[in-house]
Amino acid sequence: MLELAILGFLYEEELHGYELRTRVAALTGHVRPIADGTLYPAIKRLERAGLLIRETRPGSAAAPRHVLILTPGGRAELLRRLREPGELFITDENRWFTVLAFLRHLGDPAQQAAVLRRRLTFLTQPASFFWEGGRPLRAADFDDPFRQGLLTIATATSREEIRWLRATIDHLLKDQDQG
Questions:
Q1: Which of these CATH numbers, 1.10.10.10, 3.30.70.260, 2.60.120.260, 3.20.20.100, describes 1-85?
Q2: Distance from first CA to last CA of the chain, Å, rounded?
Q3: Closest Cα partner for 159 from 133, 132, 130, 134?
Q4: What is the pLDDT of residue 62?
Q5: From CA 179, how far away is CA 108, in angstroms rounded?
Q6: Residue 172 above 90 pLDDT?
Q7: What is the pTM of this model?
Q8: Please, are residues 10 and 47 in contact by the beta-carbon 8 Å criterion?
């Protein structure tokens, strides 16, 4: 998730470490706080893999700044990860949101729709915790108010996401057919 966010933000523009950390924290910090101890090792891994480079530029005040720049290989890797997200990036909500944050960079509406279809398929499959005896459970099926709340929130969220996914897939494919 962190590497995808780094690649995605650097795809948009060159950034120095602090700017990148701020953007990643804004995207994922509510789920996983971004510490220098996680961000900078990830940057170094991507740099060693040839996906980004670090360039030293004069600072506005005095000290030089290290700017992070995505390489052509890094751009290709981001697009590959968006086109073919791993299963956890489809099933885990937080990872999914990271994919959504950068899916526009994929550019091809058919490829974007294919990724959205994978998420739609996942959301429309019976989930074991919310199904019993071949039917979906309802909040009223639980005596526990907390499980009622869990099911109420999960059902409403899934319903809205499914509605959005279907509408967006239709829109993407309609635009492609007209284009």
A1: 1.10.10.10
A2: 33
A3: 130
A4: 66
A5: 11
A6: yes
A7: 0.86
A8: no
